[in-house]
Amino acid sequence: MDNVFVQLICTIQYRVVKENADDAFYELQNPQQQIQAYVFDVVRAIVPRMNLDDLFEQKNDVAKAVLEELEKVMADYGYSIEHILMVDIIPDAAVRKAMNDINAAQRLQLASVYKGEAEKILMVKKAEAEAEAKYLSGVGIAKQRQAITDGLRENILNFSHSVSGTSAKEVMDLIMVTQYFDTIKELGDGSKNTTVFIPHGPGHVKDISNQIRDGMMQASSSNV
User: Fold this and answer.
1) Which of 62, 71, 87, 168 can bridge 9 by disulfide, Cβ–Cβ 3.0-4.6 Å?
2) What is the pLDDT of residues 5-16, one digit of tens each?
């Protein structure tokens, strides 16, 4: 029905029935040629009614139909048809090329779908990993700031209890000065340090302390 030429290759197993050996010997001069002719007749009667795809899918049904027809015909000549196997179906060269092109196009299309799905999964996993990393980074920064705040609070309380007459502001100023000098020392001790010009003097230290205190007060007021 597809109007294409195909070549069918099949193998046929047959034997002479012992009881009908005389018929097998005298009735047919060339049994192979006779069997081949009957096979051609059956195939030409069945295959033209089928599409090419159906022929590939139902080749066993074709072999069964040929077997049933041969059994009825060849029994009269003393032969028993044991088995028929449809070995191969070979379409015309142009048809084979077209089928291969279609198959290749389908595989390329399927491969592109799988590739797109894989890229989509990678993007989703990457986004999830980035979100998780940002969340953990935020948690770490929050804990770090909380630890710094707790440490400053503990230092202020300990110093106020140890040295009578000192206020929390004075203790905070002293801590700021200490951290300021520690920072300058770290800048100078760096293995890849460069020249850094920092205003250095008591007045500048006081300005830094005031700026930090003002920032903390503004942050506290914004959270209220």
Assistant:
1) 87
2) 788 888 888 888
